[in-house]
Design brief:
Distance between the termini: 69 Å
Number of helices: 6
Helix content: 10-25%
Radius of gyration: 22 Å
Number of strands: 12
Strand content: 15-25%
Structural class: alpha/beta
Strand order of the largest sheet: 2-1-5-3-4
Length: 255
């Protein structure tokens, strides 16, 4: 039997969260058989390919398909938010022109928060993996998930692992990763069904709740499910809750 080959790996920043504790934030030797693609070895450590933005092998950019033959030093970097590395290595597909998402079954509250800020998010609590991938391809949406197994599937071209477990912190993470702050348009989309919300002329609402003056209050209605919205104390409370986790969005002028 041929002797196993070895190479040295080092993962950076948040990619360490996917690794076994003994492998985090350090270089380590990895033994393997044959000449596997570096993508296969990276995912064998638990790191989905959608989370990787740059691979350097012996200091030179390398594609996922690069074969390992032994003796290499492999450095693996996450998605960079502060500068563009596309000139170094074309590992990731081109970003989608518009930020549109489809979320897995674990991210229902995150979907609601993103919709409240005006982002197009499909969510259903019974989406299976195959359906998520099909929607992502058909509608050009980025998959958001806490399932690393889903992101390791070769069919997933645009996807992101959501590290946080608390929904507001998940929102902060997604806003930062996809640089969405400048695109926030609060209360322009229905938090229940994702359809756009349209203003309703004052005095024309017949189904206003008791105690709400339809002749003075500005209403909006979902163009999909017909849910009625109006300005109240909700935006200021929500803005305070977001601020508690470092999300700075102005909801006061909206709604």
């Amino acid at each position: 039997m041929p002797a196993q080959r070895q190479c040295e790996f080092r993962f950076y920043e948040e990619l360490n969260d996917f690794l076994a504790p003994l492998l985090r934030r350090r270089s380590f030797v990895h033994a393997f058989d044959g000449t596997p693609a570096v993508k296969d070895r990276i995912e064998s450590f638990g790191v989905p390919h959608t989370e990787v933005d740059l691979i350097l092998i012996d200091g030179e950019p390398a594609p996922f398909s690069r074969r390992l033959r032994g003796g290499e030093r492999v450095a693996v970097y996450p998605v960079f938010e502060c500068f563009d590395v596309s000139g170094l290595a074309a590992l990731r597909p081109h970003p989608l022109r518009e930020p549109r998402f489809v979320l897995d079954v674990h991210l229902g509250r995150l979907a609601s928060y993103l919709r409240l800020l005006g982002f197009d998010c499909l969510y259903r609590n019974d989406y299976g993996d195959d359906e998520l991938i099909a929607i992502s391809h058909r509608e050009h949406r980025t998959v958001l998930t806490r399932d690393t197994g889903l992101l390791k599937r070769a069919e997933v071209t645009h996807g992101a692992f959501v590290h946080a477990t608390e929904p507001r912190r998940q929102l902060r993470e997604v806003l930062a990763r996809f640089q969405l702050e400048s695109l926030v348009a609060p209360f322009t989309r229905c938090a229940r069904c994702n359809a756009p919300v349209a203003r309703v002329p004052i005095g024309t609402v017949d189904d206003a709740p008791p105690g709400i003056d339809r002749d003075t209050v500005e209403f909006s209605r979902c163009t999909g499910c017909a849910q009625l919205y109006w300005r109240g104390s909700h935006p200021s409370r929500l803005q305070r809750r977001f601020a508690e986790v470092g999300i700075d969005v102005d909801l006061g002028a909206a709604a």
